[in-house]
From TrEMBL:
It comes from Pedobacter cryoconitis. Gene3D superfamilies: Histone deacetylase domain. It holds the Pfam family Hist_deacetyl. It comes from the Bacteria. GO terms for biological process: epigenetic regulation of gene expression. This is Deacetylase. GO terms for molecular function: histone deacetylase activity; hydrolase activity. The keyword Hydrolase applies. Belongs to the histone deacetylase family.
Length: 302
């Protein structure tokens, strides 16, 4: 059975001005259940990740400031909202959900996290609404436990996975790939193993053609045994923060290409949702739900 990480804290309201994007975390599982795409027993509520696991990827000084709520105001402004206990617990559960998802994917081939994709958090900083880097932590966990030796991170959020690149820059077992809007946040990019910066307004055909050429090359460069996929839907033309020119159908085709790649290569894949900031919440939820639908259609066990 394909498992999906979700906890009520995922939709925990942020301070004024940040509440709207959080609605999707409640609406995505509701919509999938309503349509009969998933069943309730596929959802699991992750626990809180341990400090020991966090410290595989984040510096103790930064982590202790988060844990003890002593993060300086300037560092909190970089994250984008004031730190509090519920937000930290939310991030800790999201991270454990991605780790659990990776372990579930090892058995079933696929797992999802309704949230996650917190790729702007570096080893000693938070940024862009990200406190801890869920997929980087999960990748280091898998390596540390000897579960996999070669891991590929496919980051197709519209923003570069700068924190992921920085945390994993000296980890030869992980290959980081980010395809993102070049003239977009973060304006100070880190160096992934392979970065592709796209022009503003890049349409479906250009994006998908490029991705189609890249995926086989990623496999040849690293011969991965496992994939983490960050499937942000802020690539949509309607997205307020994205600046690309993709349609919902193009975004769905993007997901199909990634899942088909994983299927053909026999690669288990854990999926974290990443960003999505279109003005209409229905566009965000539909695009994210399409990711679930395509993945389940292609990779569900027979």
């Amino acid at each position: 059975m394909i498992k999906i990480a979700y906890h009520p804290l995922y939709a925990h309201p942020l301070p004024e001005g940040h509440r709207f994007p959080m609605l999707k975390y409640e609406l995505i599982p509701e919509q999938l259940l309503h349509e009969g795409v998933i069943s309730a027993d596929q959802l699991f509520a992750p626990e809180i990740v341990s400090e020991e696991i966090v410290l595989l990827s984040h510096d103790f000084g930064y982590w202790s400031q988060l844990r003890d709520f002593t993060l300086p105001p300037r560092a909190q402004r970089r994250i984008g909202f004031p730190l509090n206990a519920q937000l930290l617990e939310r991030e800790l559960r999201i991270t454990q959900g991605t780790i659990d998802g990776a372990l579930f994917a090892k058995a079933s081939g696929l797992a999802f996290n309704v949230a996650g994709g917190t790729h702007h958090a570096g080893s000693d900083w938070g940024e862009g609404f990200c406190l801890l880097n869920d997929q980087a932590i999960a990748a280091n966990y898998l390596l540390n436990k000897g579960i996999y030796k070669r891991i590929l991170i496919i980051d197709l959020d519209v923003h570069q996975g700068n924190g992921t690149a920085q945390i994993l820059e000296n980890v030869p077992g992980v290959f980081t790939f980010s395809m993102h809007g070049e003239k977009n946040f973060p304006f100070r990019k880190e160096v992934s193993d392979w970065d592709i910066g796209l022009d503003a307004g890049t349409p479906d055909d250009v994006y998908l053609s490029l991705l189609g050429h890249v995926l086989p090359e990623l496999y040849e460069r690293h011969k991965p045994e496992f994939v983490f996929y960050l499937s942000g839907v802020d690539v949509l033309k309607t997205d307020k923060l994205g600046k690309l020119g993709m349609s919902k159908q193009g975004c769905r085709e993007r997901d199909k290409m990634v899942f088909q790649f994983c299927k053909e290569k026999g690669l288990p894949v854990q999926v974290s949702m990443g960003g999505g900031y279109s003005p209409a919440i229905k566009d965000i939820v539909e695009a994210h739900c399409n990711t679930f639908k395509v993945g389940l259609d292609l990779l569900s066990p027979m």
